[in-house]
Amino acid sequence: MAHLDLEKPLLERNDRLAAENKKLTDDAGVFMVDLMASPGAGKTSTILATIEALRESYRIAVIEGDIASDVDSQTIKSKGITAVQINTGGACHLESDMIARALGVLDVEALDLIIIENVGNLVCPTDFYLGEDAKVMILSVPEGDDKPLKYPGIFQISDAIILNKVDTTPVFDFDREAFLSSVQGLNPTAPVFEIAATTGQGVESWIDWLTARVDKKKKPLR
Amino acid sequence: MAHLDLEKPLLERNDRLAAENKKLTDDAGVFMVDLMASPGAGKTSTILATIEALRESYRIAVIEGDIASDVDSQTIKSKGITAVQINTGGACHLESDMIARALGVLDVEALDLIIIENVGNLVCPTDFYLGEDAKVMILSVPEGDDKPLKYPGIFQISDAIILNKVDTTPVFDFDREAFLSSVQGLNPTAPVFEIAATTGQGVESWIDWLTARVDKKKKPLR
User: Fold this and answer.
1) Which of B9, B32, B21, B28 has its CA nearest to residue B136?
2) Is the ipTM above a cut-off of 0.85?
3) B90-132 per-position pLDDT tens digit
4) Distance from C-alpha of B68 to C-alpha of A148, rounded to nearest angstrom
């Protein structure tokens, strides 16, 4: 369709700014992860569980992307963690210029980990590189085991996949084997972490995966 | 941002084709409803419950929009109902030219009700008029009561709102009063139907609302 061509220069501009974001965080030794999911899959709960597990060991900040409102950044701030709210004003994903502005507000040198909570969407965030070190997606059990078939792109580009709300499996007709097999077909290398963010179930393996990457990038203190 | 201006002529083209879709269905006396929701909120289950309730009284067809796959249209067809699959190939919403092509495949004169299942997304479908008579959105309880605050646009433009999976309320921390109050603030005139599509709970009021509109548009048989 015509607008795909129109979008090309915009994507190029996005990638150029994303590369600047990457350089900024590389120089500071900060690991930046872009967390993507549908509305209500548990992005904020997963971030809260991650903060809880890592706040003693690392200096963390959160960049919150939403169409509107600041409820999520208020939640994060109430835990004593720095949070920058971005309102996209209608756009269904974050772009690298928004992240550049958020990084400008943060004291990046004084951080080890930046968690970006993208806009709730299984489609739009897929196409936009923000300068992050990893893209991680969350699917929740109530959304159904067929989602990899319907939204293959986001499963393909994710470096790790979190299956959240596994404690609700008894309530929903979720075929775990079918889900894992679909994911394996789309993305054989991404680990799948099965968690319940609100109870802490299974969160350790996700934390181990993330910790290894934050440590690898962290600059030794001088 | 720059691409909003670039998109303007595309939206105008979309609206022009949508008006043609509207005229086609008006002339045939067919009611067309655009069903929007997040991935996994229960669009297909709601359509199945609607078909079950109305199949004896009306001639129904379904237009299925997905990024990829045809699992939903196969499900609908397995119930003996005509279904046309549209794969958007990455786009996060349906556009009116896709609906025009689907209407070209259907025998519109021989129908009373066309249900469009939009791509699973709370953002993108909001901006695209397809020529439908009504836009209806579904939110499901597991997604959380704060979704009207985060995705106000879709709540504002919907003619009716379905709250699905109300049977799972005991499992989730969903504040019904807060949800209804947020919806009321955004869209005071849209009815909210609280249903569990898979058990049939509460489906009657949704069916009554839809039936009244299908009957109003239906041409008397000659």
Assistant:
1) B32
2) no
3) 889 999 999 999 999 999 999 999 999 999 999 999 999 999 9
4) 10
Q: Which amino acid, residue B182?
A: S
Q: What average pLDDT does this structure show over A164-171?
A: 93
3-state secondary structure labels for all residues of chain B: CHHHHHHHHHHHHHHHHHHHHHHHHHHHCCEEEEEEECCCCCHHHHHHHHHHHHCCCCCEEEEEEECCCCHHHHHHHHCCCEEEEEECCCCCCCCHHHHHHHHHHCCHHHCCEEEEECCCCCCHHHHCCCCCCEEEEEEEHHHCCCHHHHCHHHHHHCCEEEEECHHHCCCCCCCHHHHHHHHHHHCCCCCEEECECCCCECHHHHHHHHHHHHHHHCCCCC
- Cβ-in-10-Å burial (0-12, 13-18, 19+) of A118 comes to buried
B92 part of contact set with chain A, CB < 8 Å = yes
Q: B-chain residues within 8 Å CB-CB of A120?
A: 38, 122, 150-151
Burial track B42-64 (b if 16+ CB lie within 10 A, e otherwise):
bbbbbbbbbbebbeeebbbbbbb
CB B83 within 8 A of CB B103: no
Give yes or no for a contact between A121 and B150, defined as CB atoms under 8 angstroms apart: no
Which whole-number Å values give the CA distances from A128 to A133, B64, B120, in the listed order?
13, 26, 19
pLDDT-derived band of residue A220, with 50, 70 and 90 as boundaries?
confident
Tell me, yes or no, if A68 comes closer than 8 A to chain B by beta carbon: yes
- Above 70 in pLDDT, residue A1? no
Cβ-Cβ pairs closer than 8 A, A with B, add up to: 128
A135 in B contact zone (CB under 8 Å)? no
| Cα dihedral: A119, A120, A122, A126 (round 10) | 10
What pTM, to 2 d.p., does this model score?
Answer: 0.86
Nearest CA distance, A47 vs chain B (angstrom): 16
CB–CB of B76/B83 below 8 Å?
yes
Q: Quick one: tokens of B201?
A: 């709970």
Whole-angstrom Cα Rg for chain A: 17
- The dihedral over CA atoms of B162, A117, A136, A100, expressed in degrees to the nearest 10, equals 140
What single-letter amino acid sits at A184? Q
Name residue B122's amino acid.
Answer: L
Q: Are strands B160-164 and B31-37 parallel, antiparallel or unpaired?
A: unpaired
d(CA B131, CA B109): 16
B143 touches chain A (CB under 8 A): yes
Report DSSP state, residue A93: S
Radius of gyration of chain B (CA): 17
